[in-house]
């Protein structure tokens, strides 16, 4: 029986396009679907690879041992299974934490990275607020506390012109098993890769919305300042939902960044 290299990974990846391989890593309570529009703008020049984190979409079940190291190992399994020796990595939110830690652990496998909407420099107050929200979700339920988070996703103009977008995102969140959501949110709210960033020598593109909650323009500048070779793109007036609101601009920034590295 032929060994299937995809049998030992969190989910069977989607592969679209040709060219330099890029692996896209989504965030908490999301799925690979969040990258669809970005990939649509990049597939002519890049081999775009996306997958579902464990416990999300088609991902394998998540258990109580969830850790950032476990998710980094899942990413390495995806990389190995696709057969690419070196890849670019793009991560959003929790996915950005995974990408940053992976780039530190496996520098020989990485060409460049992009970290989107990734918090850094969290204060004790930030951590206390996240812990309080997590406790409310555990007590009241995820559905009842979602308005606290959903207000940070999209701009008012976008929700007005796309009336179904917010509900679609809410439905996606609520489709995740509540125990899994809480486990992942607990990890996201306390994980810290600040110490890893100075050890990443690969070119990095830091992207975020100007008003993204917990990871806006100032935080993006702080992230870039901790790294050896990082540049920033801050989308004016945007919140956290840049992949949904302006996927073409996100894709263009990634394309231009990749092209600039090839020219060096």
TrEMBL record:
It comes from the Bacteria. InterPro entries: AB_hydrolase_1, AB_hydrolase_fold, AB_hydrolase_sf. This is Alpha/beta hydrolase. Residues 21-184 form the AB hydrolase-1 domain. GO terms for molecular function: hydrolase activity. It comes from Roseovarius pelagicus. The keyword Hydrolase applies. Transmembrane segments: none annotated. Pfam families: Abhydrolase_1 (PF00561).
């Amino acid at each position: 029986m032929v060994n299937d290299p995809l049998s030992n990974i969190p989910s069977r990846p989607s592969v679209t396009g040709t060219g330099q391989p890029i692996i896209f890593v989504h965030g908490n309570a999301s799925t690979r679907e969040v990258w669809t529009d970005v990939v649509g703008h990049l597939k002519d020049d890049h081999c775009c690879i996306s997958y579902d984190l464990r416990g999300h979409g088609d991902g394998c079940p998540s258990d109580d041992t969830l850790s950032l190291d476990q998710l980094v190992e899942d990413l390495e399994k995806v990389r190995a299974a696709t057969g690419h020796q070196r890849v670019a990595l793009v991560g959003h939110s929790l996915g950005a934490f995974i990408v940053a830690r992976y780039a530190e652990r496996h520098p020989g496998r990485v060409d460049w990275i992009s970290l989107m909407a990734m918090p850094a420099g969290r204060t004790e107050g930030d951590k206390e607020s996240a812990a309080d929200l997590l406790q409310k979700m555990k007590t009241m339920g995820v559905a009842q506390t979602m308005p606290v988070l959903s207000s940070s996703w999209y701009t008012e103009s976008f929700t007005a012109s796309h009336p179904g977008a917010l509900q679609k995102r809410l439905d996606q969140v609520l489709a995740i098993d509540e125990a899994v959501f809480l486990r992942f949110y607990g990890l996201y709210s306390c994980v810290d890769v600040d110490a890893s960033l100075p050890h990443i020598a690969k070119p990095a593109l830091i992207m975020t919305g100007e008003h993204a909650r917990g990871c806006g323009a100032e935080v993006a500048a702080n992230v870039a300042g901790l790294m050896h070779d990082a540049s920033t793109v801050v989308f004016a007036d945007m919140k956290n939902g840049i992949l949904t609101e302006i996927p073409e601009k996100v894709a263009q920034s990634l394309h231009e960044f990749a092209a600039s590295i090839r020219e060096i």
